[in-house]
Write a structure and sequence with these properties.
OB fold (Dihydrolipoamide Acetyltransferase, E2P), alpha+beta, about 375 residues, 19 strands, Chloramphenicol Acetyltransferase, 6 helices, four-stranded antiparallel beta sheet, Dihydrolipoamide Transferase, seven-stranded mixed beta sheet, 3 domains
């Protein structure tokens, strides 16, 4: 059997959930014919056939998670399946010698649970103790199905809902950010009384962030083998946080500083529509220089937005409020936009962040 494995779906996308199979065992398929639709943390992706052939087997059912490099389709014919993490269907792995000097042959307590390296890796990921399992494979070999059943049983006893898709990706990214980023947050207010209308500030925010990047660039660097991505050049690729019932998506608006206000408005509208239709290509969710979260459209003034590596900064915009301000010794009521800037202190100094936020406020306060 020749195997077609789940291909690389883009930066940071290491797994996908099967949404719908379009073929079944026994079907003849042509190159580029649609095989399966999968849901990643960022979009629904249709995967075509790599070449002509007859489907011998499909791996996984609707709702199953597959990792990049695991078999997706088995074609009829001879071929090298290779070593695939988590999907070993036999071979020498399960036939390794097991003995212990000084132990009687009938003594099995000293033996480590028998499982392939891929199954051990899966058990570690799912928090399953192999020693507690009775393997269903040959000679007591613990299989992937044994591990998944144990994990599912633990979840059933615990109750609650299994995280999938966008929410699962959010949990992973937040854990990574908590482990890797040293966050510091600065707060400021932008007085918008010079605007003709102080509402729907997204386009002005995008332009002001581009101006701040040009006036006070932060950093593009390598740290501890990782790339930190706020670049020292005029092009700004801005991630736009879009809240949906399924979770938070961050599509990327390209080259913000070189685009007109009308072009930016149309680009934002298109990105939002594509996200809500779950039709946005994965490449449009990658490579943001920094992210803008306009949570004020929902509620709230200030926040501690979370920086997700390899980015080093995120700007949060709260709700615009009419507030009293001091003007030439008198009190006036102006529309005020609260801003929050979280930066990764591994890469950005406090002075750089403060100057960046000042440049952002000054750009927003212009007529």
């Amino acid at each position: 059997m020749k195997y077609f494995k789940l291909p690389d779906l883009g930066e940071g996308l290491q797994e996908a959930e099967i949404v719908e199979w379009h073929v079944k065992a026994g079907d003849s398929v042509k190159a580029d014919q649609l095989l399966v639709s999968v849901e990643t943390a960022k979009a629904i992706v249709d995967i075509p056939a790599p070449y002509d052939g007859v489907v011998a087997k499909t791996f996984g059912g609707v709702g199953d998670l597959l990792h990049v490099g695991e078999p997706l389709i088995g074609y009829e014919g001879e071929g090298d399946a290779g070593t695939v993490v988590g999907r070993l269907e036999g071979g020498a792995e399960g036939q390794a010698d097991s003995f212990c000097i000084g132990a009687a042959p009938s003594t099995r307590e000293h033996l480590a649970p028998r499982a392939t390296p891929a199954v051990r890796q899966l058990a570690q990921k799912l928090g399953v103790e192999l020693a507690d399992l009775k393997g269903s494979g040959p000679d007591g070999l613990v299989t992937r199905a044994d591990v998944e059943a144990a994990a599912e049983g633990a979840r059933a006893r615990f109750g609650g809902e299994k995280l999938r898709g966008v929410r699962r990706s959010m949990a992973i990214n937040m854990a990574r950010a908590h482990a890797e980023v040293v966050p510091v947050t600065l707060f400021a207010d932008a007085d918008l009384h010079r605007w003709a209308q102080a509402r729907d500030p997204m386009v002005r925010l995008a332009g002001a962030i581009a101006a701040a990047c040009a006036a006070e660039p932060l950093l593009n660097a390598w740290f501890d083998g990782r790339s930190l991505s706020l670049r020292r050049h005029a092009q700004l690729d801005l991630g736009i946080a879009v809240d949906t019932p399924d979770g938070l998506f961050v599509p990327v608006l390209r080259d913000v500083g070189a685009r007109s206000a009308e072009d930016l408005k149309e680009g934002m509208a298109r990105l939002r529509a594509d996200v809500r239709a779950r039709s946005i290509p994965p490449q449009e969710m990658m490579g943001a220089t920094l992210t803008l979260s306009n949570y004020g459209t929902l509620f709230g003034r200030y926040a501690n937005p979370v920086v997700v590596p390899p980015q080093v900064a995120i700007v949060g915009a709260g709700a615009i409020r009419q507030e009293p301000v001091a003007v030439d010794g008198r009190v006036a009521v102006h529309p005020v936009l609260p801003l929050s800037l979280t930066f990764d202190h591994r890469a950005v100094t406090g002075g750089e962040a403060a100057r960046f936020l000042k440049a952002l406020v000054e750009a927003l306060e212009r007529p």
